[in-house]
Structure formats: C-alpha cells, structure tokens
Specification:
alpha/beta, Aldehyde Dehydrogenase, Chain A, domain 1, Aldehyde Dehydrogenase, Chain A, domain 2, 2 domains, seven-stranded parallel sheet, four-stranded parallel sheet
Amino acid sequence: MDAHMTNDISAVMKALGAAAKAAAHELATVSTDAKNQALLAGAKAIRARKSDIQAANDLDVAAAKEKGLTPALIDRLVLNDERIEGMAAGLEAIAALPDPVGRVLADWDRPNGLHIRRVAVPLGVIGVIYESRPNVTADAGALCLKSGNASILRGGSESFRSSGAIHACLVEGLKAAGLPEAAISRVPTKDRAAVGEMLNMVGVIDVIVPRGGKSLIERVTADSKVPLFKHLEGICHTYVDDAADMEKARAIVINAKMRRTGICGSMETLLVDERLGADALKTFVTDLIAAGCEVRGDGAAQAADPRVVAANDEDWDTEYLDAIVSVKTVAGVSGAMEHIQAHSSGHTEAIVTEDGQAAETFLNGVDSAIVMHNASTQFADGGEFGMGAEIGISTDKMHARGPVGVEQLTSFKYQVIGTGQTRPA
C-alpha cells in the first residue's frame, strides 16, 4: 500500500472516531425511551429491507464460494429468512431489557453527612472487530446503543455487503429516534489497515471487543494499545464424577460436544472419574463415536474402546472446534481440577455429579469465567443467561467476565452529595 492510501485510511478513521466520540457524549444522557425507539425502528427496518439484506448476502456468499472458503465459514456467513428475523427479534429483545445506565450500584452516608453513591455509566466508544458473521453488526450495535455507548463496527471482508445492508437499517432506526447517526458507525473499507488504526485510537475508543478466530484475537491482543474484552480460546471441560447420574451424564456429554462443535462453549475435553470404571468410560466413548465424533484419549480410554486414537500432550491444549474430543481419566474432583488448572483457557467448565459437596468444591475451586453443575457447556451464552444477547465472552478478570452484555458494557462513577461540608485541615 502506498503512503497516499495509508493517509486516506488514517484520515477516514480519525473522522469516524471524532464523530463517534461526539455521539458517545450525547448518548450518555439520552433517555431510555429514545434508545428503545431507535432499536425498535431498526428492527422494523430490518424486516422491511429483508430483500435488500438477502441480496447483499447472496453476493457475499457467492464471492466466498469463489474464494474457496470452507463450508463451515460459509455457514457463518449465510443469512436466510430465519436468521434475518432473528436479528430483528434480537433488537426487540435488547430494547426490552432494563436500561443499565444510571443504576445506583451502591450508596451510603458518611458521619460528616456526605451521601455517596456509585452509579453505572457508559464506557464511551466501543470498537468491535469481527469476522464473517454479519448478524454481529446488529447485535453489537444494539448492545452498545442500549448501554449508552457509541460503537465503531469493523466486520470481516467476506460479509462487507451484508453488514452494510444491516448497518443501514440501524442508522434508519437512529434517525427515527433523533439520535446521531455516528452512534453506530461502520468502518467503510475492507482494508486491513483500518484495523491497525482502530488498535491505536487511544483516547477515542475506550475498549475493543474482538470476535473471531484465534489468529484475529492474537493479532489484536499483540497490537492493541486500547483495552480489550476478549477470550483467546474456549478449551472447555466436562468432568463426570463417580457420583454422577449416568443417564444425565450421557446426555450432557453428547450435547456439550456435538450440539454445535464450532462454538467457543463446545466441550473439548471430557474428564472421567477413574472410580467409575471401564464400563462407564466405554459408554461415553461409544456414545461419542456413534454421534460421529473422533475420540482421542489416554491409556484407559484406549483400553475401553480400540477405536480411540492415542492423545498426545498437544491434545489437552487444543480447541478443536470440530467433531473431535479428548478423553482422560482423573482421580476424583481434585484430579479434575488439577487438569483444568493446567490446561483450561478459563472459559467454561462443568461437573456432572449428584454429590453436593463435590459440586461446591468444583464450583468454588475452578477459576474459569463460567463454571456449571449438571449442565451442558453449550449454555455458555449471554442469551441463555437471560442477558438478551452478548457482544462476546471475556476470559479476562476485569469487571467484564463471561458473557458481555449491556451491564458489562458500563463502568461507574461516584456521585458525592453534600450540604456545604468542607474538609478540615
């Protein structure tokens, strides 16, 4: 790229950032009704412009097939009637959520008569960098708006036309509510230099949320000067305790792995209490193989079924995102927790047991963003948590951890109310 092109993109991004920052200042104090009106009008526009969105998506899908993208990537890109309606319904669901801005998180009085309260406020400008899923345009823009934040959205080049058509509907909603169009901004170029600009927009973008594959997250993590809400991988574990209900465990294991293998909440390693014995281990392995899953396992798993491929050290640290699972026997809850501590990415872990004490030990002792008892790891999702939707999953340990919904897209400030108090010397 020549210097002229680089300068052009830099100028475009600076202008985009300045407009978003001005919009964020306005959004911080707009009414709940205005935000909801924009979201509902945006949903109406998506339904009204369904044919435009579908036509844009058809062009994106055709180009993706010409480029030879994998069927899995194309599936993420494809929009149909159901998915388009899902976007519209998602905006309505976010509009129905309580407004997270202005919540009094805590308040107290001091002996000197000062009243102090901690109040939720927007973060400011949120940058969202994502790959092929065009529906993220609607979800991310809506979540940021509901939480009083301006957003700068940079979707993948494969979904450029689709995202543009969806973004036009969101802008129509903003106009209908009298809100600034820059409240939901979209990077108007496929050029990757725009991503580099975003990662350096300190003082303009307050936080960046990367959504995509490992290479994208690694690049953003390495290069960003702006704080991030992110997760690198979803190496999720399910541990079946010797006190598990076997029928319950079998259903959970199959669902956790096979419902959707390509999501970050998919189980990648199954840990089985060695006290359950070879028959139980064989049952889990047989179920997984029958469901079309390749099983890689330790010596016990191989002994239980000759179809099990020998696992190597790398398998315990791999996010397959495919119909492949690693199986290992462990010595009870402590053995499971030891393995998870050594190999987990901090995303989601589950225990299957009818022993309440074992469950509490696991829930309290495992240091991951989401820890479950007697449930599939596939529930690791903001919508399933009743949060309306999520902008992503965070495995960091700042205030946003696990599903990042509207509440996590706020910070807080302290308001101190006095009656004329002065501080003594």
